[in-house]
Design a protein that fits this description.
Elements (H helix, E strand, L loop, with lengths): L2 E5 L7 H12 L6 E5 L1 H10 L4 H10 L2 H4 L4 H8 L10 H10 L12 E7 L5 E4 L4 H8 L9 E3 L2 E5 L1 H4 L3 H6 L4 E5 L14 H24 L4 E5 L15 H18 L4 H7 L11
Parallel strand pairs: 1-2, 1-7, 2-3, 7-8
Antiparallel strand pairs: 3-4, 3-6, 5-6
């Protein structure tokens, strides 16, 4: 029997995974392998290192947009003029990984870690299980057009969420019998559409992520013991706002602890409620 933790992408909403992971750990549930996509790869690396989740929470609480997505007018101009393949440097993310990643290579992780990326040329999804951990995670978080693709072994890779944001299939292929999905959800209660190009790109990505998750849950619910931890709802956090990490962590912890105490909700119910709008905007 093998239990896999599958951590989806979700940009700044990745903070919510800290609360989920903390509640699950307190319940005595631990992974035999970890599969992560995009920001889920970053959080997954922390889990695979068996590092204190309290410290991961502090990392998230310290982040701001400028530290994750350092913008520069010239970089954006080059991107729009066709002289660059991205709008934002990945130097911020690389610095975060350099400061906090606890192993140099994926195969050195105490718990097996698999990082999902997308091949830029073929569009194929791939789970990386060995190689430089920092570059693999940067590749997995490389939102197309926003962050630069990353070259590994002479192949260019971008965000794994392009083809498989909640990589349940990879966990099954690796022998998992039980799969816990840590889905970030999306900003379902925004007051208005994002105003910046970066914000709109991030919001669109999380919407695509949510839709793909629904399809994967329908596909694999009868294949393995699939448990989808309910994502936060409602959420009104702007896609570029990293200042709400503490609230996201605390709310997701409470929601997950309650879910664990009551038992998993029916997946069909979760699917029916997963993509919707709200009449009122929450305080978040």
């Amino acid at each position: 029997m093998a239990t896999a933790f599958v951590l989806s992408g979700g940009a700044n909403l990745g903070a919510a995974q800290v609360g989920m992971l903390t509640a699950v750990a307190e319940a005595g549930v631990h992974p035999d392998l970890v599969v992560g996509t995009s920001v889920g790869a970053l959080n997954g690396a922390w889990v695979a290192a068996e590092a204190p989740l309290e410290d991961l929470g502090e990392v998230w609480r310290s982040l701001r947009r400028s530290s994750v997505f350092p913008t520069h007018p010239l970089r954006g101009l080059l991107g729009f003029s066709g002289r660059s393949d991205h709008l934002v440097s990945n130097s911020g993310l690389r610095r975060i990984l350099h400061d906090h990643l606890r192993f140099d290579r994926l195969e050195d992780a105490p718990i097996p870690l698999h990082v999902v990326v997308t091949d830029v040329l073929t569009g194929a999804g791939q789970a990386l299980s060995s190689g430089p951990a920092e570059d693999a995670i940067l590749a997995s978080t490389a939102i197309p057009g926003v962050l630069p693709p990353v070259s590994l072994d002479d192949r260019a890779y971008m965000d794994g969420g392009v083809v498989n944001n909640s990589p349940i299939s990879h966990a099954i292929e690796m022998g998992a019998d039980t799969v816990l999905v840590f889905a970030t959800g999306y900003s379902c209660a925004l007051k208005e559409p994002p105003r910046s190009a970066l914000g709109m790109a991030l919001h669109a990505t999380t919407l695509i992520v949510q839709r793909r998750l629904l399809l994967d849950v329908e596909r694999y619910a009868e294949v393995v013991d699939l448990r989808v931890i309910p994502p936060l709802c409602p959420v009104g956090v702007s896609p570029t706002d990293f200042s709400q990490a503490d609230d996201l962590i605390n709310r997701s912890y409470a929601l997950t602890a309650d879910w664990l105490a009551q038992g998993p909700v029916d997946l069909a119910t979760m699917l029916a409620q997963a993509v919707h709008a709200h009449d009122a905007t929450p305080p978040v």
